[in-house]
C-alpha cells in the first residue's frame, strides 16, 4: 500500500528533511498529520534539531508549538531531550510553554537535566520555569546527580534547587539527592550538596541516614565529610568516624536469622524490579542499592543499574510511546 502524504511528511520530518514536507504541505493539512502516538512533524523536527523545518512547520503550516502527543509530550520536550538550544529558543519565542508536563509529570527541565545539557537547563531556568518540579522519577536535581552531571547540578543549585528537601514527604519513594550521591560514592556531589544546604539527617524509608549508608559501603572519606553535619545516632555506641566505621564492619548481620536476611534482600529486589518495570529508574537503583548493602560484597543480580538507566532511556523517536 502506498504511503499517504501525511505519512511521507512525517517520515521526512523524522529524517530531518524539509523538501518533502514542503511538497506534501501542498497536498495535505500538516496540522492534521500525526502518527499513532500523536506525534506531529513538528515533534520530529524538534527532536532532530532541524530549525529550518520547525520554522516552516510553525510559520507556514501553522502547527501548534504546544501540540501534545497522547502521553502529553510536546516538541519542546523533545528539543530539551536532545539539547537543541536553537530550536528551544525558537519554540519559546513562538509561544511554547516550557512548563507543560506529560502524563507522568515530566517537564522539559527533567529531560535537559538528565541528559546533561547545561545550556538548555540555563535557557529553561531563564524563562522562569520551576527549578524543582517533581515527576515519577524525582526532581531534575535527582536526575542530574544520578547521571553524574556535575555542571548541571551546579546550575540547578545556583538557581535555587532545594538540595535539602525531604522529597519523601511529597510521595516520592526514592532517595534524596544527597542519599543518591552517597549511594554512588560521588564525593564531589556530596560536598556540593552539603554546601548548598542538603540535610544529612533525613533518613530513607528504612531509617538509615547517609552516613550509615556510606559506612556500610566502607566509604570512610564520605563518613568524614558527613560526620560534622550529622546528628549523633543513638544506636551508634561510639560517635566518631572510627566508631561509625567499626560498627559498620561488625558482624551484626551474622547474628541475624539467615532466612530473614534473605527475605529482606528478596523484598528489596522485588521492589526494585517493580519500579524498573514502571521505568522509575531512580527508585529502582535505590532498592537494588539497598539490596547490595544488606548483603555486604554481593551485587544486586550482577547488574549495574546506573548503566541500565542509560540503556533503557528512550530516544526522541520513542518518547511519545511512554
Automatic annotation (TrEMBL):
Can you tell which superkingdom this protein's organism belongs to?
Eukaryota
A family per Pfam: Ank_4
**PROSITE patterns from the entry?**
ANK_REP_REGION (PS50297), ANK_REPEAT (PS50088)
Q: What is this protein called?
A: Uncharacterized protein
